């Protein structure tokens, strides 16, 4: 279905719907992957980001409500691809260390994708003068960046374990 895309406001709403779909998919992936993780540090990290993601979804719903727009209806194809790659990896006959190193890489791709999306949405919100949305989107953007950094830290050990597996 073709949508109305006449100005930055339309693009902004579309971007938010895309991110909303991406977040739902990312949440499902983490709920699926957390059960396969053996490293307590990684499991704890994923569990914490599941909670953050639930809050991020609520922040988006808050923005949609103020805009008088519906959050649903859009499917983020980019996140769909990232999730499929992660699921393919999880089906491999891999040693636990290699699987976890690979899962971190997939999760970091998800965080980078989200960082790109929230950066754009935050910039649109600034231009459109929606200061409340700017605050909410920036809060999430910081959480995504911190999650990415934390995963980089966790990977340092797990990558070496994968190398020696
Ligand atoms: Fe997120
Ligand atoms: Fe995230």
What kind of sheet is the major sheet? none
Helices and strands: which structural class? mainly alpha
Portion of residues within helices = over 70%
Q: How many strands appear in the DSSP assignment? A: 0
What is the CATH class?
Answer: Mainly Alpha
Describe what this molecule looks like in 3D.
With 165 residues, the protein is mainly alpha-helical. The protein has one domain: Up-down Bundle (Ferritin), CATH 1.20.1260.10. It is built from 5 helices and no strands. It has helices at 8-33, 40-67, 77-90, 96-127, 131-163. Helix 1 runs parallel beside helix 3 (77-90), helix 2 (40-67) runs antiparallel to helix 5 and helix 3 (77-90) runs antiparallel to helix 4. It is elongated and about 55 Å long. The mean pLDDT is 96. The structure holds fe (iii) ion (FE) (2 copies). One fe (iii) ion (FE) binds next to helix 2, helix 4 and helix 5.
Distinctive features:
5 helices, Ferritin, mainly alpha, 81% helix, 165 residues, binds fe (iii) ion
